[in-house]
Amino acid sequence: MIEIRELTKRYGNVTAVDGLSFTVGAGRVTGLLGPSGAGKSTTLRLLLGLSAPTSGSASIGGREFRDRPPGAREVGVLLGTSGVYCPHGGNTAREYLTGVARRHGIPLGRLDDVLDIAGLTSAEHRRVATFSLGMRQRLGIACALLADPPVLVLDEPLNGLDQRGLRWARTLFHRLAAEGRTVLVSGQLPMELADMADELVIIARGELVAGQRAARLAVRGRRLPVSVRTPDVAVLSSLLADEGAAVELNEDQSLTVTGLSARRIGDVAFLNVVPLHELAPEIPER
Ligand SMILES: Nc1ncnc2c1ncn2[C@@H]1O[C@H](COP(=O)(O)OP(=O)(O)OP(=O)(O)O)[C@@H](O)[C@H]1O
């Protein structure tokens, strides 16, 4: 459904995306995972025709986005990290969505549906300027869903969501995929994205690090090293070694743990009342 082929984008001497190829199928949630500056937003902007590639191509349904027929509304989009750009902060959520729906010729009857899906019905008359980042993200996702599109391209939709918001997003994205849609979601947080996605594409410095199913297994499973900080370095090291992990103590007193998932490390620490100050799977650098 979405095909990125040998995509390259250079800005002067910065190569933001470097010969990237991957595909995104319908009926599943695909995560585009990478650290800050990896080239996720650039890839999505190229896919959406918002900037032109230096070489290579990006297509949706076999067609470049900018070649789609006028008025086509097959792609729902969320771009930018703060969910909703709101130049007129005086608008309420309903007014904001009304504006977007009118601009795209979408019947206003759809507003109630997307407000409900986004869990914003009770906040529909609140000014967007008073919204938290998480609520803005929900509103941005509601916007992306307005036209009921078969394809969703969402740049960092999980930013600012709390645990409840993450659960909501996971359920929603899976439902949208189960309905046969193509759902592409970018993010920086391996665990959150791996939990959310059926497939993962991991990029770093504009290049593919690991593709699709292998990447998901790497994050969910045991292969990514996990960075851990605790005041009880010795106790936790020995507990994790007992679990079969390889534990390395770094100069800054953090631990690099390989062979156990972040989730398992968290559980071991919790069960043994060891405080954790950081628990972060490391995205592989090339
Ligand atoms: N318009 C631009 N001009 C120059 N350099 C750019 C431009 N857009 C992106 N870059 C550079 O390209 C690289 C990739 O940026 P991009 O925003 O795509 O990464 P990202 O993975 O989305 O990061 P983040 O998660 O922080 O948004 C970075 O080095 C960035 O500085």
Protein architecture, described:
One of its GO terms (molecular function) is ATP binding. It holds the Pfam family ABC_tran. Residues 2-230 form the ABC transporter domain. The protein has 286 residues and is an alpha/beta fold. The chain folds into two domains: 2-220, P-loop containing nucleotide triphosphate hydrolases (Rossmann fold, 3-Layer(aba) Sandwich), CATH 3.40.50.300; 226-281, Alpha-Beta Plaits, CATH 3.30.70. It has helices spanning 40-47, 93-103, 110-117, 133-145, 163-178, 190-196, 212-220, 233-242, 262-271, and strands at 2-11, 14-24, 28-33, 55-60, 75-78, 151-154, 182-187, 199-204, 207-210, 226-229, 246-249, 255-258, 278-281. It has a six-stranded mixed β-sheet, sandwiched between helices. It has a four-stranded antiparallel β-sheet with strand order 11-12-10-13, with helices on one face. A three-stranded antiparallel β-sheet has the order 2-1-4, covered by helices on one side. The longest helix is centred in the middle third of the chain and has 16 residues, at 163-178. The chain binds adenosine-5'-triphosphate. The site of adenosine-5'-triphosphate (ATP) has 12 residues, from strand 2 and helix 1.
